[in-house]
Write a structure and sequence with these properties.
4 domains; alpha+beta; 405 residues; Lyase, Ornithine Decarboxylase, Chain A, domain 1
Length: 405
C-alpha cells in the first residue's frame, strides 16, 4: 500500500490516492473519503453469510455498518489475523465497485494498527479552579458604584435575561478596567470586580448548559471558565502529535469511575511552554474544549491518554529535558488475565544531561568544591554541606518527572 499524488489533467486539482497492489493489478481510491482506519476486532464467528458484521462505533461515537466485501463479492475466502483492518469511508456518494474491492483487501494501516498497544498514564499534581461555586460576599453601600452595579447584575441573572446580563457584566467590567487604569479604582476594588464578574459568568453558564441552543457570544464561555489540571508529564515528549498536528487522543480519568465527574478542565504539562497543554478532546459527535474530571481530594488522581502507540515517544524531543517515561509491558494470557512481562525505567536526570554533553562526575566535583569553599568561609555548616551533596546526587540519579518523597 502506498500514497500517490496524481493530476487528472493540466487544469484539474491533484488528488491523493491510496494505491493497493493485488497480484499484477493496482487499485486506487481518493483518500479524502477515508474517515477512519482501525484494526479488525470482531470474532470471525460474528460474520454473517452476506458478509455483514455487527455495527461498530467510530472514535466520535457514530454507529457505522461494516461489510466484508471479500464475501459480498465472492473474491476470496476471508482470513482474520493481526493484519486485518476496517476502513470507514464517507458513503454520502455512491461507492464504486473498484473502491469496494479495495476495501476488502488486507492492508498495512500504520497508525490504526499500532496506536492501540500503548496508553500514557500520569498523575495530577495540582489544580487551578476558576469556578469554585462560592457566592460573592454582599456589597456594602460605601463600595465603588461600579461594584454595586455588577452586584445588581449578578443578583438579577435569570433564564429570561441571562444574555442581556452577560452583555451588562462585560460592559461594567470594561468600565472598571478603564477606571483602574486612570487611577479611580484601587487594586482591592479591581479584584472585587473580577470576583463578581466570574461569579456572574458561572451563574450564566449553569443556565446555558441546560439550553438546547447556545447563543453565539456564549459558546466560548465553557472554555474560558474551565479549570486547569497540572499533570506530571511532558506533552512534547509523550504526546507531540497533539501539539504538532492537533491529533486527538482519547483521554479520561482512570480513578473514581463509579462517581460523576463534576469539574471541567484542560490539562497542562510540566513544561514552561504555553503550548504545553491539552485543550481539545474527543466528544460524542464533535470536539470539545474541556475534559470532565473529579475534584482532587488529597488522594492520588490519575488520567490516561489512549491510542498513543504510534510514534509518540519516538517523536519526543526532550523538550525542557524531560526524558522517556517509565514503561510497563503488560500482556493477556489465554484466560484473558493480565501479566506484567517487564518494567523499563525511564531516563534519569543524569541520562538526559549526558545527551546535552554534561558529565555527572564533573558536576558533582564542582558542587563539592563549592561546598568546601563555603565551609572554609563559614557560610554553611558541615551538616548543611553534607545534606546538599547528598540531595544533589540523589537528584541526578532520579527521574526527570516529579516523584513523591
Amino acid at each position: 500500500m502506498r500514497m500517490s499524488n496524481a493530476g487528472m489533467d493540466s487544469h484539474a486539482m491533484p488528488h491523493d490516492f491510496l494505491v493497493v497492489t493485488l497480484g499484477a493489478d493496482e487499485y486506487a481510491f481518493d483518500v479524502a473519503r477515508v474517515l477512519e482506519i482501525r484494526p479488525f476486532e470482531h470474532s470471525p464467528r460474528e460474520q454473517r453469510r452476506d458478509g455483514t458484521l455487527p455495527e461498530i462505533s467510530t472514535w466520535k461515537g457514530v454507529k457505522a455498518s461494516v461489510l466484508d466485501m471479500r464475501i459480498a463479492w465472492g473474491c476470496e475466502t476471508p482470513e482474520y489475523d493481526a493484519c486485518a483492518a476496517i476502513v470507514l469511508l464517507d458513503a454520502s456518494e455512491p461507492i464504486s465497485e473498484q473502491d469496494q474491492r479495495i476495501l476488502s483487501m488486507v492492508t498495512e494501516s500504520g497508525r490504526a494498527l499500532v496506536a492501540h498497544h500503548s496508553v500514557l498514564i500520569y498523575n495530577v499534581l495540582a489544580t487551578n479552579e476558576i469556578l469554585a461555586g462560592q457566592v460573592p460576599e454582599s456589597v456594602g453601600r460605601d463600595e465603588h458604584p461600579v461594584i454595586r452595579q455588577l452586584s445588581e447584575t449578578y443578583e438579577g441573572i435569570s433564564r429570561k435575561n441571562f444574555q442581556e446580563g452577560y452583555h451588562d457584566a462585560l460592559q461594567i467590567k470594561e468600565e472598571a478596567i478603564t477606571a483602574f487604569n486612570l487611577g479611580f479604582l484601587d487594586l482591592k476594588a479591581r479584584a472585587r470586580v473580577e470576583e463578581l464578574f466570574w461569579a456572574t459568568c458561572e451563574k450564566i453558564l449553569k443556565i446555558v448548559r441546560d439550553l438546547p441552543y447556545v447563543p453565539d457570544e456564549l459558546e466560548g464561555l465553557e472554555k474560558h471558565l474551565s479549570d486547569t489540571y497540572y499533570c506530571n508529564f511532558s506533552l512534547f515528549q509523550s504526546l507531540p502529535d497533539h501539539w504538532a498536528v492537533r491529533q486527538l487522543f482519547p483521554t479520561m480519568p482512570i480513578e473514581r469511575l463509579n462517581k460523576q465527574p463534576t469539574r471541567r478542565a484542560i490539562l497542562a504539562d510540566l513544561t514552561c511552554d504555553s503550548d504545553g497543554k491539552m485543550d481539545r478532546f474527543i466528544d460524542l459527535r464533535d470536539v470539545k474544549d474541556y475534559l470532565e474530571l473529579h475534584p482532587l481530594n488529597g488522594e492520588p488522581y490519575y488520567v490516561g491518554s489512549f491510542l498513543v502507540g504510534a510514534y509518540q515517544e519516538i517523536l519526543g524531543d526532550l523538550h525542557n529535558l524531560f526524558g522517556d517515561t517509565n514503561t510497563v509491558h503488560v500482556s493477556l494470557d489465554e484466560e484473558d488475565d493480565y501479566r506484567i512481562e517487564g518494567v523499563i525505567n525511564g531516563d534519569t536526570v543524569t541520562d538526559v544531561l549526558r545527551y546535552v554533553r554534561y558529565n555527572r562526575e564533573e558536576l558533582v566535583a564542582k558542587v563539592r568544591r563549592a561546598t568546601e569553599a563555603a565551609l572554609k568561609a563559614k557560610r554553611m555548616t558541615f551538616e548543611e554541606s553534607k545534606t546538599l551533596l547528598r540531595r544533589y546526587e540523589e537528584g541526578l540519579a532520579g527521574y526527570t518527572y516529579l516523584e513523591q518523597d
